[in-house]
Design a protein that fits this description.
Elements (H helix, E strand, L loop, with lengths): L2 E4 L1 E4 L2 E10 L15 H25 L6 H15 L1 H14 L3 H16 L5 H21 L13 E5 L4 H8 L4 E6 L7 H8 L4 E3 L4 H4 L5 E5 L4 E4 L3 H25 L12 E6 L5 H6 L5 E5 L1 H5 L7 H10 L9 E4 L25 H6 L1 H18 L3 E5 L5 H18 L5 E7 L2 H5 L1 H5 L4 E4 L1 H9 L17 H13 L5 E4 L10 H7 L3 E4 L4 H9 L3 H12 L4 H15 L4 H7 L1
Parallel strand pairs: 3-4, 4-5, 5-6, 9-10, 9-16, 10-11, 11-12, 12-13, 13-14, 14-15, 15-16
Antiparallel strand pairs: 1-8, 2-6, 3-7, 7-8
The structure holds phosphoenolpyruvate and magnesium ion.
Length: 581
Amino acid sequence: MSLEKKGIAVSHGFITGHILLLNQARTIVDKKKIKKTEIYEEINRLQLAVEKSIDEISELKINSDYGLKSEHIDILDFNILILEDEILASEVIQKIKKEQINAEWALNSVLTDKSKNFSNVKDIYMQERLADFYYIGERIIKNLRGNLDFSLDFEKDSIIVAHDLSPVDALKYCQDKNVIGLLTDVGGITSHTAIIARSLSLPAIMSLVDISQVLEPGNEVVVDGYKGLVSWNLKDDEKKEILKLKKEYSVLEENLLEFSKLPSLTKDGVEFLIKANIEIASETSSAIRYGAQGIGMYRTEFLFTSKDRFPSENEQYEDYIKLFSNNDFNDITIRTLDIGGDKLIHKNDDEANPAMGLRGIRYSLSNIEIFKNQIKAIFRVCSEKKKKIRILLPMVSTLEEIIEAKKLIESMAKEFDVDDLYNIGVVIETPSAAIMVNEISHYVNFLSIGTNDLIQYILAADRNNKELRPILNYYQPAVIRTISDIVTNSKEGTYISVCGEMASDILSLPLFIGLGINELSMNCHSIPIIKSAINELEKKDCENILYKCIKKKKSSEINTILKKEILKKVKKAKKIIKYEF
Ligand code: PEP
Ligand code: MG
């Protein structure tokens, strides 16, 4: 009987290959009592293991055959920084001295304590940064035991399966030409390892729970990195199906690339802009590949959370300038820092209700130097490149916040002499911003509807809570009516984009066209299909669909209408849509 497991598709692609099991669980550590006279020898052992770990990572930085990208270097530097951090080492040393125990055990218990401090934090950014500490702990333990890193001979079409893979090991092993995919028990879309898989275009699925225990070395597996599905033990007829699917997927990729070249015009000639949401600057190359007409939202959080400190103005400048290399995008939107509350990595993790805490613009205005540094870095790029940048302010809930941020940005623009080189917009993602949208639209150059948060706040339903999936859907009448009110109540002629995930939902597309939204910004991979669908829709029809939906009282009714209309009208992308629903 064939078996399958579903996880989170963190890097797209469809592959078949045989698995190579790298580790089945975290290293087991045994506790040993040491004599008082052995304490210094034990500390020395620890220090040598830490130094060895630093050397290994530095060596990987220097000796990569493939040339590392800057975000890879950042991740390796972040690992080295943790290793060099004296606080971690001194806590372990204190434990060795006080409890007279072996270095492995001391290190492991310091890491366990740290994880307890994080245990109430639900935010994935935080959990994934904690994962970085574990990877490093494992590396030190391996070196304490004298288990040197080993190199592997990968056979053709190897798919790495691991409980977890550190970013350092991912860089080390996944660049091998025989490695075609990665599967892990844990991890998610924003983990460093996922980012590396995406940047290497390596299909990867994470959060597969216990896949590293279920699969046996050599198993032939099928990895559907679109749906997040792994299957194995396939019968002959299923294998035939898979071959068919593989062909379909390669046609899909070809089609996507073909669609990416299409103009984003409706059948009756109404223009739309389709842009990319990116999380690291080098993703602009994927944005171009998939036909984006600009960057509609650069989420800058990763830049801030990938290090154990905030990046300097100069580091930010060096990152933002990369957004302009190798492309001729005129339109680039940088969203200011949206950490704070549940996305905060630095201190302040004691808020009772972080989703409603000091986050987004509230955090920036309470930490004015951090905000100023970010704006300065943006303006240095404007001034050097003579290109316009749109500055997008997240989590706005009052007019006062906009006025205060705008005043500061305007005065800084004068200093940098970039008055004509920027626009200010806000993300409409709180109910209060949606209600105050008319007043807000008089103060800013553009609006971007952040449906991810907007939906969570309208429905009072945590966007990360899987149990709430049935409530948390795009077709809730309250959601659609709120979006419609935002458009209707904004000042005449306001430029409005949608930057939440709903922008990439093909069923919602007629609603956005019907409403007269100007721009949709989405993950790169969704761009071609949305472009293709736009080409097959007419504005007039979409207005009628919107009219029908807005009167409905239940999400199921709206969903039925949209599904019927899309399947009827969208012909070219039909084959592809079947994978998305
Ligand atoms: C949103 O809330 O829709 C949005 C685009 O921001 P994020 O998902 O980063 O919170
Ligand atoms: Mg948001």
